[in-house]
Structures are given as C-alpha cells and as structure tokens.
C-alpha cells in the first residue's frame, strides 16, 4: 500500500466498527475453490461492498481489485492516527 503504508509499518485494526467505503482495511482473501487454498492478507482502500463482491483500491500501481464476497475471510478497518489518539 505504498505510499500510504510502508513495508513493515505497524498498523492497528478495529474490530468493533465495520469498515465503510473510503476506509483503509486489512483483508484476508482465500484464492481457490477450497479453504485449503492460498490465503493472503492485504492492506487496501475499501471502495464498495455488496452481497456478491468486495471492491478494493490499491495505490501502487493504481488499480481496483474485485473479489467475490465468499473469498473474503476477514476484513477489518485500519484505525487512523486520530482515532488512536482519541482526537
């Protein structure tokens, strides 16, 4: 997610509040037809969520990714600094 987050940068997630479009999210995706297939975690900007799909934006290179809702195992909102500081 460069330039927003650098490799190895620590981010905090919030489980209590569901992510909304425009939020940065940590999302765990499964690729393949069974649960034993490859899983990967991504940090992306949430574009939209429907009953069928999740659309995510990446910055480098600029691109919108679309995943089937059943591929998304978990999705958590990345807490902005203002939320962490309580401001």
Features:
mainly beta, globular, 47% strand, 87 residues, SH3 type barrels, six-stranded antiparallel beta sheet, 1 helix
Characterization of the model:
It is a single chain. By secondary structure, the chain is mainly beta. It has one domain (13-81): SH3 type barrels (Roll), CATH 2.30.30. The protein contains one helix and six strands; from the N terminus they run ββββββα. It has a six-stranded antiparallel β-sheet with strand order 1-6-2-3-4-5, with no helix packed on it. A hairpin with a 4-residue loop joins strand 4 (53-58) and strand 5 (63-68). The longest helix is centred in the C-terminal third of the chain and has 5 residues, at 81-85.
Structural class: mainly beta
Oligomer state of the chains in this structure: single chain
Q: How are the strands of the largest sheet arranged?
A: 1-6-2-3-4-5
CATH architecture: Roll
Estimate percent helicity. under 10%
Weakly predicted, low-confidence segments: none
Overall mean pLDDT score?
90
| Overall spatial form | globular
String of helices and strands: EEEEEEH
**What gap, in angstroms, lies between the N and C termini?**
25 Å
CATH topology: SH3 type barrels
Radius of gyration: 13 Å
Brief account:
The protein is mainly beta and 87 residues long. Helix content is 6%, strand content 47%. The longest helix has 5 residues, at 81-85.
Helix and strand topology:
Elements: E1 13-14, E2 24-31, E3 38-49, E4 53-58, E5 63-68, E6 72-78, H1 81-85
Antiparallel strand pairs: 1-6, 2-3, 2-6, 3-4, 4-5
């Amino acid at each position: 997610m460069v330039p927003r987050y650098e490799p190895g940068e620590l981010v905090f997630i919030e489980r209590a509040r569901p992510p909304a479009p425009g939020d940065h999210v940590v999302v765990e995706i499964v690729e393949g037809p069974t649960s034993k297939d490859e899983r990967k975690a991504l940090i992306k900007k949430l574009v939209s969520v429907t009953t069928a799909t999740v659309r995510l934006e990446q910055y480098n290179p600029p691109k919108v990714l679309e995943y089937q809702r059943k591929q998304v195992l978990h999705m958590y909102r990345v807490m902005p600094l203002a939320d962490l500081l309580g401001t």
